[in-house]
Amino acid sequence: MNEQPRRRRAGGRAANTARRGGADLHQSDWRIPLNTDAPTEPLRPEGVQAIHEGAMRILEEIGIDYLNPEAIEIWKEAGAIVSGENVRIGRDFVMEMVAKAPSQFTITPRNPAREITVGGKHILFGNVSSPPNYMDLSLGRKVPGTREQCANLLRLTQAFNCIHFAGGYPVEPVDVHASVRHLDVLFDKLTLTDKVAHAYSLGPARVEDVMEMVRLAGGLSEDEFRARPHMYTNINSSSPLKHDYPMIDGCLRLIRAGQAVMVTPFTLAGAMAPVTMAGAVTLSIAEALSAIALFQYVRPGCPCVIGTFTSNVDMKSGAPAFGTPEYMRATQMTGQMARFYGLPLRASGSCAANVPDGQAMWETGNALWSAVQSGANVVYHAAGWLEGGLIASPEKFIMDCEVISMIQRYFEPELVATEPEDIAVDAIREVGSHGHFFGIQHTQDRYETAFYSPFVSDWRNFEAWELGGAVWTPERAHRVYHEILSSFEPPPMADAARGALEEFVIRRKEEGGAPTDF
Amino acid sequence: MNEQPRRRRAGGRAANTARRGGADLHQSDWRIPLNTDAPTEPLRPEGVQAIHEGAMRILEEIGIDYLNPEAIEIWKEAGAIVSGENVRIGRDFVMEMVAKAPSQFTITPRNPAREITVGGKHILFGNVSSPPNYMDLSLGRKVPGTREQCANLLRLTQAFNCIHFAGGYPVEPVDVHASVRHLDVLFDKLTLTDKVAHAYSLGPARVEDVMEMVRLAGGLSEDEFRARPHMYTNINSSSPLKHDYPMIDGCLRLIRAGQAVMVTPFTLAGAMAPVTMAGAVTLSIAEALSAIALFQYVRPGCPCVIGTFTSNVDMKSGAPAFGTPEYMRATQMTGQMARFYGLPLRASGSCAANVPDGQAMWETGNALWSAVQSGANVVYHAAGWLEGGLIASPEKFIMDCEVISMIQRYFEPELVATEPEDIAVDAIREVGSHGHFFGIQHTQDRYETAFYSPFVSDWRNFEAWELGGAVWTPERAHRVYHEILSSFEPPPMADAARGALEEFVIRRKEEGGAPTDF
C-alpha cells in the first residue's frame, strides 16, 4: 500500500460521526496512577556522585544564606558553622538528616477518597499555580486575575479526575486585597474542590489561617489535624544560595503541625545558576537539601519533597525557556538525585508560549514527559500554564488535561497485557485474511474500554471537521470550559464545616486579615 | 518566592529583544544522532515470549497470503506449506532467516556526506510521505497535491539538517499523470536534495526507473550501485495477513540490486487487527517477519528494517487515531520485539489533527517521543503530517522540525556532562548569594552553544510578542516556510549526472512512462 492513505482509510467515512468533546467528559475514574516505566537516567553512577560531591562542597565550603533569624538560631543549635546569615553544614549531618525523611507519605484532604500518596511510583498532577494574569479566548487579551476567574479554574481543578491536587491559586485574584486574599481563595478552594489544598508561605498569619481553614473544612480536631498531613506548602529558594524569611517560616509552621513541605529551587541556568545543566542541578540540590536537613532536624521524619525547576534562559535575551532539551535533562538528572537521597520528587508542566497553540503544547508535552521520565511524584502546574507562568489559561487547562489523561491511560496495565486472550491468535484465525475485526466477539467484548476516549481532540476527518465549523483546538477547549462551568456542581460538604469556614473568614476579615508587609 | 513569577522574571524585559525565527535557521550541523537513552520496555521477558509465540503460531498455523506468484514459487522452493495464496512457515525457518538480516547497515545517497546508518543506537528522521492533499495557511484550504508543492516540501527536506532522509513523495502531485509521476518527482528529489531517496513499490517499471535514476544521480556504474545500499523502499502489508503483488515485487527487485527494504504493517487495533494492543502488535510482527524471512531466503544478509505502525481506531466512529497512549505502548512493545529479533526498527511521527494546532503537536509529540522510547532507528513522517497522513502541511513541517531538532539536541552528551567545570562549584563560589551568572567567565565561555536555539518558537514575553504582531505559531511557521523557499539553493550536482537524469526522464516519458494498471 505504500502508505498512500486513500486505500487504508476505511474508517474515514464513519469518522464523520465522531463524538465531540464536551462537558460529558467520559473521563476515567479518580485514581492515582503508578509510573511503571523505568526512569530515564542520563547520568552514570559517577555523574550522580559528581553532582552529590558538588552539592556537598557547596554546603560545606560556600554555605546557604538564611534570611530567617529563627532558622539561624536552629542552625547554631545544630552545630552548623554560622556566619551572619550564611550557614555551612557538613555532609555527614546533611545525609543523616535527609535519611530521616520518609520516601513516601499521604496527604488527606477533607474528602478522604481524595487522599494522595506522595512517593514511590505514584505520579500526581496539579493545576497551574500563581500566575498574576488570566486570558481566555472570549476576552482575547491578558488581564489581571480576579476571584471569579480563580474560582472558575478551581472548578476545572475539581472537574478533572486527572488533576489530583489543588495547588496554589490557579490565578492570583488581584481584585481581592492581599490582606484577605488567602481567606477568600481558600474558602473557594475548600468549598469548590475536595482535593488536597496548599498554603502559600507568605507570612505567619496566612499560613496559620490556611491551616485552620483546612482543619475546619475537614471537620477535624486540632489533634486529628496534626496527626498526619492534610495539606502542604511549596517553597522556592532565592537562588543563588538563599532561603528567604517567609518561605522558611511557613515550612517550619507546617512541619511542626504535621503537614508536608516541598522545597523547589528555581534555578535558571545562565541567570541565577551556572550555565551548565549539571551545575544548575548541583546548585538546586544544595539549596533544597539544606532546607530539608533543617526541617528534618526540627521534626525528624517530617514529610518533605525535593522539587526541580531547572531550566535555561535564552542567552540572547535573558528570557526564560521551558520544555527545552536542557530542561528535560535537568529534570531527569534531578530525578536520579532524588532517588539517590530517597526523597519524593516534584517536577512541573511548563512552557514559554503566550497562547494555547502548537508551541505551548510541544513545550508542555516535553515538560510533562520529562516529569514522567524523571520518576517525578508530583507534577505541579500540569494544567493551564502559559507565558512562563505569568498567564493562567482555561483553554490551555483543558488541552493539558487531555495530555495528562493520556499519560494516565498510558500507565494502565491492560495496554501492555500479554495473556493469551490479549495475544488473540484465535481472533486472528477467526478473521483470517479477508475479514475485519470490528464485528467479532473478541472486539465486542472489549470495545467500550479498549482505547482512550478524548474530550477535546477532534479525530474526525478534514471534511467532517470542516462541516462541523472547522474549529481549532483552542476554540474547542473554550467550549469545553464553558460546558464544564455550566454543569458544575460543587462536591458535597457538611453544613457544619461550611458554616465554620464562613464564620472563620468573617472573623478574620473583621480582624483585618493578614499583614501585607511581609 | 512561592512561584509568583513577578519576582523571578528578571529576564522579562530583556526578552523583548528575543530573536525571531527565520530562514537564518541557526540550526545544528548535519549529523546522525545517537539515542543514548535506555529504551522504555513495558513488556517483561514473558511478554516478549508471548508475542513471539503468538507470531510464530500465526505463521505456522494460520499463514500469510501472498498475492505475488513469484513469491509463492519461492516459498514452495523454500519448503513452506503453500495452499493457494496462503503460506505457512515453521518457526525454525523464520528464526534462521531473520538471523541473517544485519542489525546495522548504511545507505549512501549521491552526496556521500549524507550517508545514513540504520540500526544500533542511530535515530534518523524523514519527511512526511504520501499525503494526497496539501494545505497551507495562505491557501486556507485542503487541495490535491501538485508538483510545485511537492518540490517546495522537498526544499524543506533539504533545508533542515534534522531531516536525514527524503522519504516518499512529501505530497502526491496529482497534477502529474501517474504514468510519469515517479519520473518528475524523483528528478525533483534527486536535484533539490542530496539525501537518501526512496522508491515506491508500485509496479516493476517504477521501481526499475527509480533505481536507475538514483544510480545516474550518483554517477555510479551498475556494479557500484549494486555493491551497497544507495536507496530503499518501504512496504505495508495488507493487514490482516496479506502481502500484495507490487509491494513484494518491489522489495524483491531492490534486494536483488543490493538495496534496502523496510516492512511496515499498518495494523489498526479494532479494525484490521485485534482490539488488544498486544494482539495488534503480534499480527504486525507476524506479517513483517514473514516478508523479511522471504527476503533473507532470496538474498541472505540483505538490509531489512522492521516497521511499526500500530495504532487504534476510535471505536465510536472507526476513525484512526494517532499518538494515543495505545499507539505509544504498541510502538514501545514493537521496539522490544525488534531487539529480540535483532532487526532495526522504523516508527513514525503522526497525528489525527486536521490543522497545525495544539492537538497536532501533542499527538505528534507523543508519537515522536514513543519512537525515541522504543529505540526506533528510522522515524518516518517525522515532519509535515496532518489528518492521519491525508494532508501535507509546510507549517506543520516547520513546527515538527523544531521538535525534532530539540530531540536531537536532547541527545547531545554535553547536556548531561558532569566534569568538574560542569558541576561549576568555583563559579557558584564566585557568584555567591548576591550575584548573577550572566557576566562571569564560566558563562561567557559557554553561552553561545550552551542551549538549544529555536527557529520558530517565540520565547518573548506576552507584551513583546503582542507588540510584534501577536503571531501564533502556525503563522510564524508560514513565514519561516517562505523565508526558506526564497533563500533556497539546491545542493551542488555534477552537470553530467544532472544531464543523464534529464535524458533518462525524457526518454522514459517518450516511452510512455510506467503502466498504471498495477
TrEMBL record, chains A, B:
<feature type="compositionally biased region" description="Basic residues">
    <location>
        <begin position="1"/>
        <end position="11"/>
    </location>
</feature>
<dbReference type="GO" id="GO:0015948">
    <property type="term" value="P:methanogenesis"/>
</dbReference>
<protein>
    <recommendedName>
        <fullName>Methyltransferase</fullName>
        <ecNumber>2.1.1.-</ecNumber>
    </recommendedName>
</protein>
<comment type="similarity">
    <text>Belongs to the trimethylamine methyltransferase family.</text>
</comment>
<feature type="region of interest" description="Disordered">
    <location>
        <begin position="1"/>
        <end position="44"/>
    </location>
</feature>
<keyword id="KW-0808">Transferase</keyword>
<dbReference type="GO" id="GO:0032259">
    <property type="term" value="P:methylation"/>
</dbReference>
<dbReference type="InterPro" id="IPR038601">
    <property type="entry name" value="MttB-like_sf"/>
</dbReference>
<dbReference type="Pfam" id="PF06253">
    <property type="entry name" value="MTTB"/>
</dbReference>
<dbReference type="InterPro" id="IPR010426">
    <property type="entry name" value="MTTB_MeTrfase"/>
</dbReference>
<dbReference type="GO" id="GO:0008168">
    <property type="term" value="F:methyltransferase activity"/>
</dbReference>
<keyword id="KW-0489">Methyltransferase</keyword>
